[in-house]
Amino acid sequence: MLLIECPNCGPRDETEFHYGGQAHVAYPEDPYALTDKEWAEYLFYRDNTRGLYAERWSHSLGCRKWFNAVRDTVTYEITTVYPMGQPCPVDLRTGERIRTAADSGSDAEAGGGSGGSSNSADTTIESEVGR
Amino acid sequence: MADMLPEHPDFLWRNPDPKPSYEAIIVGGGGHGLATAYYLAKNHGMTNIAILEKGWLAGGNMARNTTIIRSNYLWDESAAIYEHSLKLWEQLPEELEYDFLFSQRGVLNLAHTLQDVRESRRRVNANVLNGVDAEWLDPQQVKEVCPIINIGDDIRYPVMGGTYQPRAGIAKHDHVAWAFARKCDEMGVDIIQNCEVTDLITIAGKVIGVETNRGRIATERVGLAVAGDSAGLAEKAGVRLPIQTHPLQALVSELFEPVHPTVVMSNHVHVYVSQAHKGELVMGAGVDAYNGFGQRGGFHVIEEQLSAAVELFPIFSRAHLLRTWGGNVDVTLDASPIVSTTEVEGLFVNCGWGTGGFKGTPGAGFSFAHTVANGTPHELNAPFALERFETGHLIDEHGAAAVAH
Questions:
Q1: Is 0.95 topped by the overall pTM?
Q2: Are A18 and A26 in contact (CB under 8 A)?
Q3: What structural domains does chain A harbor?
Q4: Spatial contact of B341 and B348, defined as CB atoms under 8 Å apart
Q5: Alpha helix segments (H runs only) across B137-172
Q6: What is the chain B residue with the closest CA to A37?
Q7: Can you tell me the ipTM of this complex?
Q8: What is the helix (H) or strand (E) element at residue B26, kind and residue range?
Q9: How far is A17 from chain B (nearest CA, A)?
Q10: Is the Cβ pair A76, B299 closer than 8 Å?
Q11: B290 shares contact with chain A (CB less than 8 Å)
C-alpha cells in the first residue's frame, strides 16, 4: 500500500485516496471547435508513461481536496506533491525540479500548508475530468 | 553425477536466430502473439514470420492470469468475438494435438443486489439471443452447482442468484502457450526469445522494419501483442493508443482436495475463484487504482478479495495464502479490447484486453491474424477498431461484462 502525502493532512494510507489519472488535462477552451478526433483525444487518450507521471489524487476519506503528485509508475515512489492549478514543478523526463519565480512560495505550501484558496477555480475545472 | 541425469525431453520449438527479414513480425510471445502467429500460418499460409519476445515465451501476463474462459458478455460485439473464441477453445486441444486441460466446468456470476439481479437476467437474455449458453439460477440452484457457497442471509451481501454458463471453464495457461508454440514451430514460424523490439522503423507512414537488441529486421507488417507495453511501443511509430496500464494481482492458496467444482465470479463483492487441477484455489479481483508498470500492487487489494471470498466460502477461512503476484494490464476506457489497423500502414495493434485477455486468446489470434494478413479487419474485430473512440461507437463492457474489467 502506498503512503501518500496529502498536502493538507499529511501522510495517509492509499485506501483513503481516490485516483484521478493524468494531471494537467485541461477542458477544451472552445468545445464547439473540436473535431471528433480532438474530442476522442480529450476524452479517451492519456499519456501512459513508464516512469515519472504527473497525476491527480483526491483525499476522499480525509480533507476531500484534490491535489497533484509526481509518481514513478515503475517503482510507485511519489517524489513531489503540489496543489491543483500549479504547473508541474518537475521535468518528467529528467526528474529535475523546474525553478520558477513563483516556486519559493509554493514549496512551503506543498510541505504542509493549507493548499491555498487561490487555486480553487482551477481545482474545479481539473477535477471535472473524471475517469 | 551428470551421468545420472535423465536425458532432456524433446524441445517443443527451435530457438533460431532472427533472419534479416520476414513477411510479418508479431511482437510479443504471449498467448495472443502465439495464437496470432498460429492462425497467420494456418489460415493465411504465412509461414515466413517471426514472433519476437523480449523475455521468455509466455512469461508475461500469460504466466500470471487466472485462466478463466467464458463468453457471457452483454453486448453483441463482445459476445460474438468471445463466443467465437470459446468455440475455438473447444476444438483446439484436438487441433493442436495437445491436452492443455481445458475443463468446461462452468462459470457462475453471482448477483447480490436487486440491480445485480436485473442486470444478470438481462445479460442472460442477451446471451441466449446471441447463441451463448446462459441461464439464471436462484440461490438454491447456485448451491446445487457449487455446494460450498454460503447462500444464507447472514452475510453483508447475500447471494440473490447468479448466471450460469456451463460451457465456460479453465485451462492450463502454460500448456496453452506451449501447444501453440509447438504448432507454430512445426509450420516454420520463428519464435525468437530474448529479442526486445526497441524501435519501429517507418518511412512515409509505412512500416519497413523493427530495431531489436539483436539487430534490425526488415518487414512490412508488424502486429503488436504486448499488453501493458502497447502504448509505449506504438508511440515509437507515432501512434497514440487510448490505453492505461494498471497493476492486476492474483493469488493462490496451498493445495487442497477438490472442493470447488466450478468457477465463481462476483462483481459486487469482487472476487473470482476457481480451483486449479493441481488443487490450489486461484483468485483474482480488480486492478489497483493507479497507473503502474511495476508488476506488483497493494496488499489491501488482496485482503479485500480474500475477505469477500471467505464470506462467500466459509470453508476457505482456514486456507493459507501461498503466493500473490501482479502483472501489467492494458485497460481501455470502455473496457473492451482494440484489435485494429492504425494510421501507419503495416502496423497493427492487438491490445486493451485489460484483465480478461486469456479467454480471448484464440479469438484475438484468429481475428488479428486476418487483420495482419489482409490489412483489413475481420468482421469479428471490426467493431474493436481504434475509430470507435472517435465515432462514439464504444462497446461499454464496464460492469456489463458480468465482472468489472
A1: no
A2: no
A3: 3-87 (3.30.2270.10)
A4: yes
A5: 139-145
A6: B390
A7: 0.92
A8: strand B24-27
A9: 10
A10: no
A11: yes
